[in-house]
Amino acid sequence: MDRDHGPRVRVPEQRVPQGGESGSSLRFAVLGPVRAWRGGEALPSGSPQQRALLTALLLRDGRTATAAELIDAFWGEDPPSQALATIRTYASRLRKILGQDTLVSESGGYAIRIGRDALDVTLAQDLAAEAEKARAAGDRQQARALINKLLGLWDGEALASVPGPYAENQRTRLEEWRLQLTETRLDLDLEVGCHAEAVSELTALTAAHPLRERLRELLMVALYRSGRQAEALAVYADTRRLLAEELGVDPRPELAQLQQRILTADEELARPADESAPAPAAVRPAQLPATVPDFTGRASFVRELGDRLATAEASVMAVSALAGIGGVGKTTLAVHVAHEARPHFPDGQLYVDLQGAGARAAEPETVLGAFLRALGTPDSSIPDSLDERAALYRSTLDGRRILVLLDNAHDAAQIRPLLPGTAGCAALVTSRVRMVDLAGAHLVDLDVMSPEEALQLFTRIVGDERVTSEREAALDVVAACGFLPLAIRIAASRLAARRTWTVSVLAAKLADERRRLDELQAGDLAVKATFELGYGQLEPAQARAFRLLGLADGPDISLAAAAALLNLEAHAAEDLLESLVDTSLLESAAPGRYRYHDLVRLYARSCAERDEQPPVERELALSRLLDFYLATAAGVYAQERPGDRLVDHLESTEHEGLSFTDRHSALDWLYTEATNLLACVCQASRPATLRRAVDLLYAALDLGESGANSKQYEAAALTVREASRNCGDPRAEGRAVMSLANVHQLAGRFDHADREAQEALRLAGMVDDPLPACWASNARGIIALYQNRHADGEDFLTQAIEAFRSDGNRPGEASALCNLSRIHLATGRTKSAITLARSGIEIYDSLGHALRGANGRYALGLALTQSMNLSAATDQLNEALDVFRDSRQRLWEGMTLFRLAEVEIASGRSAQAAQYSESALTVLRGIGGDWRRGNVLTVLGRALDGIGQTGRAQVCWREALSIYEELGSPEAHDVRALLTPASAA
Length: 985
Prior knowledge:
mainly alpha, 5-stranded parallel beta sheet
């Protein structure tokens, strides 16, 4: 990174212009250094004066430049006596390089003949025209993409180092055009809801162009839409003061009107200006499950629901809720109707199974996080609280036509936050309960099929020929199934797989099952009788797989996990699972992933309790699954942290996990399996498997730092801690408590974290467990640093270093050394702080430990900043930043951006510091806790004050002060000192 240009952002690569007509494969660039290529070979562009001639000819669109015009372009009103001869000399040299067909002499002047696509500036003009057309047609995303591509053609300052008045004028013109294009793209960013991301760039641009009111206007809107109303108003106050001081004028009327709209909390301003602007999504979500090919009947419901959904195109937001007993076909009907309605919702369809009939219904905030990601919202922009996520979700859907299918809802409270808020969108809800308390919903009660529909469904699956010859027996079958679609489908699938059976045989078997289960109620009777029939006809291996797979608590299961649970090779497990899919007893959620209908899962578990012999096999199956998750998670941990002894202290496993060829695929597995893995932790929190459950949580600690999984991780940690206490197992409890200490520390709850870490140390001492003994001391040291208890922190970290060394844990030792470096730094021992950090990095690098090596470079960057070796500090922090981003460590990514802002403050580059600070705020949304947010706001205020935006600076400092006062943090004193002179002024 160029330290003078602030945070690195992802922009399109600078493109070499392609093509060319007369000039053959010649290509030219002027949006940066003036350059030329023939094919892939760069051509010499000669002296600055020769580049000035090339520039003057290229920017005339093929028109001839006379000698007088060229002399004026070179020298203006004071040309040398040999000006014409000099021009001819440069032209001759250029002709030798470019070819005489390209540089031609005409009428005493010169011209360059090339195709329009051979020059980057004409390519840029064409892209700008395309972007304008796309925007006029309402395609904001395409317009943004085209302008980003256009801006990517620039490679620094246009016509860099080219002399002469003509080049200077063109340079100014091109820079102004570039700025106008940037404003247009930022305007589009706001129109499609990317306001949080835009604040950082706009802050830097307003610093570079303080008198440009349009940029100030965009910044005010971006801040307002990001929930930062006070800062938005402060931008206006800063602008008014600056214009009065510099130009003696007031802000333009548009800016004053915007201030008034913000003062009155204008709701229209809080949304994208154009209602038809799509939300920021790379692709339209298309999450609907596949509809069944043999969908049958329900014509009146299909018509009723379809008509209702179509009204969403008008002036209302349609909500339809289907209620009915399990197995009645709610999901099948809803999915079918949703597919039929897709033309009415061209902006996409969202789907979620809310698991409302299970023990652990999906949390609305988790679902909202998944929906927002599907709609293109980056993780860094997803807020933490349910209310904030729901508000962002509604804003993202505003102006779009999206269908949301909320399947298997528990109750109205679960789905209210998931409903779109505006016309054009619709929600389709399925549940076993009637949503009578869901205001405005169109309620549909789904009953069993009519006999004719039931027979038609049965016939479609079994085949017309077999049913026609035994119509009465077929009617007996569907009646025995209670006319329930799920039961009919399972019974028919069984018959279709038994070519030697007649329909009468099936009817007789179902009659037997009904008599055996006559104590059941009618609806349950039909379903369970069907399940009993399907289950009773399975081969022994299939029946075993069916029983055992239903024991796992996760919403679905991967093939690899299923193979482990069943104690089979993957290919054998796949054959069994696919055969169960063929019977409709199991569903294929996606390639390599399987799930049960919730009724079938309950039945499978009851079969396992009744039939699994010996009974211990149930426990063994879940134990194998736990082994699989623990072994695989430990492998991921080891791949991320080579040499770390933590994996050596985990409970041993009898069954292997997966292995990965690279760290990226390992992390992909961990985050994909997060929900299932944490469900396994909770399910395994019983005495026989408790220790492995705790260790699985410990090995998966990266999930605790994830904005998407941190709440589930904390819930799992609380579960195993409680289980450990109830079991009286201090070893398990010590590790569970240490996991909780990590959770609290990452969330900025330092008092809680310290108490948990202290308890972990006590428990570790009781059983001589080195794992929490080492890491709890390390954690208490860094917590003491955050609480300014430096002497305590040094004691704890010294203990941690000794404990890690005794355990032979060199990465742990390196971690404690780097943390001790920060204690030395906080107490003014900068030289030793640098030495300690470098010692830690040396250990990490010797082990190939990229992730924790980044933590070491973070610590070294802080020490180098304080020693005013700012260039080296920036290098270390940027190296760390790349690793944190690659490892999906959002907390550390955000904190490194914050530290880079501090470097820029120390360097006197306030604009770049503001940009880094804004980026840090965006990344840290929802993670890291209020204390860290207060730190970032304090530095952002310093940066804003440095670029003359004193009003915004005061707003940031006041918010930081409020945070610190609420937390009782000593940093409040420093922030008051910052505010005092500002207030006095």
